Amino acid sequence: MGNSKIQWAIILGVVMIVLLVPELGFAQWGGGGLESKMQGLTSKLVGVVLPLMSILGLVYAVILALTGDAGAKSRITMVIVCSVVGFLAPHIINWFKAAAGP
Predict the structure, then answer these.
(1) What does the alpha-carbon distance between residue 90 and residue 81 come to, in Å, rounded to a whole number?
(2) Per-domain boundaries in the chain
(3) CA 13 to each of CA 7, 18, 30, 70, 99: distance values in angstroms, whole numbers, following the listed order
(4) Looking at the whole model, is its pTM more than 0.90?
(5) Please, what is the Cα angle at 76 between 74 and 79, to 5 degrees?
(6) Could you tell me how far CA 42 lies from the centroid of its own chain?
(7) CA distance 42 to 36
(8) Which long-range contacts (CB under 8 A, 24 or more apart) does 72-79 make?
């Protein structure tokens, strides 16, 4: 019975927040809309995270090769293919945007 009251209190609180602060419901806080925030996130992901992960993956695969791991060759190939896709990601995204139209 106690959990039911807590659940209803949480639901009522969320509904009150959405009704009293509609900007949260439309994801338009901080002066910018959701689209600009997603563009920023995409640019950070494509410009920083993907290249960093591909370099770290390549270093890891080379270390495995130097230690004599039998599957290192396939890992290096996989990391190189994924790195190429990661570095080409901005161009792929722009191609999809152009294909979708304005």
Answers:
(1) 16
(2) 1-30, 32-102
(3) 10, 9, 22, 57, 43
(4) no
(5) 110
(6) 7
(7) 10
(8) 79/54
